[in-house]
Amino acid sequence: MRAMTTTTSSRSPRRRTVVALSIVLIVLIAFVVRLVDIQVVNARTHVDDSLAMGLENSRVEYASRGSIVDENGVVLASAVNRYDVQVDPMLAAKGITTVDSGDDDDSGTTTGWPELAAQIAAITGQDAAEVQKTVTDAVAENPDSRYAMIAKNVSTEQYRALADLKLPFLSFPPQSGRVYPDGAVGGNLLGFVGSDGQPLAGLENADNACLASTNGKVVFQQSRDGVVLPGTEVVTQPAVDGGTLKLTIDRDLQWYLGQLIAEQVQNTGSLRGTITVVEAKTGKIRALAEYPSVDPNDPTATPADDRGSRAFSSPFEPGSTFKALTTAIGLDSGSYTPETTVTASSREVLGGDARVSDAFSHGPNTYTPTGVLIDSSNVGISKFAEMIPKQTRYDYLQKFGMGSLSAIDFPGESVGILHPVGDWDTQTFYNTAFGQGLSVTVPQLVGAYQTIANGGLKIPLSLVEGCTAADGTVTDTPSTEGTQVISPDTAHEVGLMLENVATQGELADKIAIPGYRLAIKTGTGEKVDENTGAYKPDAYFTTMIGFAPADDPQYVVAVNLDEPRTVKSSAATAPAFQKAMTQVLKTYRVIPSGTTTPELPKFG
Amino acid sequence: MSASPAIDPRITAPDRSTPARERRLTAVPTTARRRAPRRLFGVIAVAGALTIVLVQMGLGILTTQSSFEIAALTQQQRDLTYQKQILNDESAGLSSPQYLAANAAALGMVIDESPTYLRLSDGAVIGSGKPADTTSSVDAMGRGSVRNALIAGVPLVTDPSAATTETGAAATSAPAAPAPDAATGTAESTTPPSISDGLPTPATR
After folding, report:
1. What does the pLDDT look like over A341-386, one tens digit per residue?
2. How far is B1 from chain A, CA to nearest CA, in Å?
3. Domains of chain A by range and CATH?
4. Are residues A156 and B114, on separate chains, in Cβ contact within 8 Å?
């Protein structure tokens, strides 16, 4: 009796439990099997099904091209959104049928393509007939045509206006545009990008690796009406913005000098002109203004030849500005001293068959090196050059940077012409002493004067301060390692001589800046006619280069004018040089010199 | 003898007491205890399941709702981004030095050629010490030559009748312009009438 009761009361729940558990297990296993079937075995099919239904979609995350900023962070070039206007010609040709809800008429009103084309053209600023033709041509060619381009790179305002027309056959893929808020300020250096966003010139091109961006991709699931399902967005490729390129240029100074050189070019009837400013102690280019120059917002408005930087690409025969280098070489190599004298007339035949003459006529003068620089005597410097071995001169010129690219390596930069010393005939031997028979670029010449201004230590010129990537890393910082080309003593002596050129030279009154000690040298180089290879008659390339304050040189300024007409000598550059140097000293708050220039004897 | 009667009741006693115990244990209290929790658990389980379903539905509705809300806000944000872009496009170029300088020139301001400094430590005047010339060192308004397509035709703030001139080609075709003085002169003479709105301010130099 007791055994009976225990079996009935305990075994029947246990059996029930076992049965229930096994049912649960069976169901569970069934689910697991189904789950594996769905998720693993037939996963691909289901994903394909969902794709076929358009549930998964992706979009491009647009990254923007990096900005270019000046030394103070003012934006010179930045990315903007532009849009292309594409049309589906097959649909567009049918026009738009609007069903008026208040009307019982089923057909509604149809707006024909010509009328719509006029609406579009009014917004894009095109000719209505032209827009209309785009579609009719596409349909004529292929009745099922689904793609034609109406306009490229329209502004956001136009894009929104077009989108507000609510025409289903228009699409607006975004494009990366570029805007240069300051226009032609530094346009010669910045370069520009094409309508497809590809860099075409200048730093945009040279530093594209810094500025370029990488678009990203986001994959997501969406419902049938296009609403993104929450939590399904996956960034499969992150968008990376381009880096910020910081230049050594000062935007305001660049503008002022650009305006100044433009006026000077116009006043003197020159072909073109350049003003360059370099910080003497760092080699940083603070401004490099050219005229004519390109407005990167509208490069096609400028003739193709003027869209680059002539300062880098077109070398010229420097003329008398080279006499300071010859003097420095002679003093540094110990070939002569500041007290050495030569006797020079205005016309002489030297070395047997080389004819050398000065710009003005004078009898035999007993010149010191200072006197040769002040009077800019070709004969005088030729006689000093005779004291220096030509190999020494050549080696020094190379060390000054002639015949090699500047550290900037600007697109299209020229190395100039410095013939090997073995090729120097007698005439070239003398001509090179006063800057003929060789050609240099503006940065090469400015670099040489930077060396003199900086105690003989040549610092590589730089135009780019650095590139700050989107993640904050800074690259492309310029090298500050200099090379000692001439001794500090020689540099000081030559600096003093150039100061005396500023105070005793014929342009002294025109270039004086009250309160500051200046060092300058002018140059009027003959121009080689590219067609004949001979010197062009009556055409000169004039230069004035100098630094201030001469007692502690801070800035080197060079003004070049190509073929000035109203005044053909280097006097053409004087007013612009004086204004440019004044502006540089003002901009950088350079303290006036407390001393005056010690006078050096011109004649021995 | 005394042991056997003593043993008997002990043997019989459990026989009597056992059925009494069984009756007490098996009857009421155990069933009462078991039945009440089963019903309660059932109710709790069903109610719980219902609650979960309801909460899930509620959350589902809320999520859907907020995803629509997000979509609406995203749309709004997109519109505002468009507006920002449009405004940026409109204002681009207004910050350029060309525009600033032309506006200043229209007010009759000049760029002084020679700087003069006041040294704070001893009050010494260093530099030229002369007042500014009446002519500007560059003529930003009359001969604006640093082109900027962004502000071409945009009227000056300080002189709405004028815009920055794009004289690049024009000035070279008219060579040897007696430019700076004449141009600045006209700029100065047009200045007084240009103060049309707002209070007239004294021209200080």
Report:
1. 999 999 999 988 889 999 889 999 999 999 999 999 999 999 999 9
2. 35
3. 60-90+115-247 (3.90.1310.10), 251-587 (3.40.710.10)
4. no
